[in-house]
Amino acid sequence: MDRRNFLTALPSAAWASAALLQSDPLNARSARLKTAICAYSFRLALAAGTLRYEDLVDMAVEHDVDGLDLTVYWFPKNDLPGFLSRLRRKAYVNGVEIPSIAIRSDLCRKSAADQQRESAWLMHWVDVADRLGASFIRIFGGKVPDGSSEPEAAGWVSDILKRTADYAASKGVILGLENHGGITLRAERILSILDDVNHPFVRMNLDTGNFNAQPYEQIQMCVPYAANSQFKAAIRFEDGRREKSDWDRIVKMMAEGGYRGYMALEYEEKEDPFVAVPRLLAELNGLADKYSG
User: Fold this and answer.
1) Cβ-contact 68, 40 below 8 angstroms
2) How many whole angstroms separate alpha carbon 46 and alpha carbon 56?
3) What's the rounded Cα separation, in Å, for the pair 29 and 227?
4) Which of 58, 203, 207, 212 could be bridged to 227 by S-S, CB 3.0 to 4.6 A?
5) SS3 228
6) 167, 161 in Cβ contact below 8 A?
């Protein structure tokens, strides 16, 4: 689907009550942790058509997982509304939540026209999330273009998020900027963007496997800003080292920071995901039980 097709006729939601625009209190509260399966864990099977999104609902039931984090890359191009309705029904009648979707985006756009296109692209997926009953969208910030500075590009990211935030709020959908390299390589830059946007419907998608310098320290900095999280089996460091992610340490710091929300398993290792994912989900479920409340 081409984001350039979403240029016109989208409502400019100047809506948002004063109460809605107040920040959520994140400190001094107990944790409430839920688990989810990230569809990206089964990317090869979804791309090949040997696994359907509906099958992930059954998998969530089988492994006692609360919800699904649905990467949208393999959504059908034909009859998208019908697909969304059927998937939403399948999840509901099986007691499985669809809290979030994940999309591709690039917010490092200099011109006003390009910023408007990107905002329209985000608004389209806000509508899709709304149709699914999802309240969160994971988005990428993109890479700093050649010849531009990081502070300059961060301003463009903020501008696009500001353009889109009120529309997302009108649907009850949170935009979650992910730490995904490029402009979002470091926690300090991500937090400066979120502080600049200063909107309760613009938060962070905390990927606990994507910081490659002082990862645990950067994760801890981001916990108060996170409205959703993804867990990877390994952490990759700047020097090329890889080590098993210390999930207990991460979940403990998130719980101590009062995190309430989903911990979605995003599996990217070489072992067959149909073998590895059930084992890792059991571990994640155990940590959710250990640190909730």
Assistant:
1) no
2) 10
3) 15
4) 203
5) strand
6) no
The CA distance from 171 to 126, in Å, is: 7
Helical segments of 94-241, H only: 112-132, 150-171, 187-197, 215-222
How many residues does this entry show for the chain? 293
Q: Which residues of the chain register pLDDT less than 70?
A: 1-28
DSSP state of 182: T
- Cβ neighbours for 223, distance < 8 A, ≥ 6 positions apart: 206, 253, 254, 257, 259
DSSP 35-51: EEEEGGGGHHHHHHTSS
Ramachandran quadrant class, 138 (left: phi over 0; alpha: psi -120 to 50; beta: rest): beta
pLDDT at 240: 81
Q: Is 56 exposed, middle or buried (0-12, 13-18, 19+ CB in 10 A)?
A: buried
C-alpha to C-alpha distance for 149 and 152, rounded to whole angstroms: 5
CATH code reported for the domain at 24-291: 3.20.20.150
Domain boundaries, the chain: 24-291
**CA 289, 291, 293 angle in degrees (round to 5)?**
85
Tell me how far CA of residue 286 lies from CA of 147, 156, 272, 291, in angstroms.
48, 41, 22, 9
Phi, psi (5° rounding) for residue 211?
-85, 125
Question: What pLDDT was estimated at residue 15?
Answer: 33
pLDDT tens profile 189-202:
999 999 999 999 99
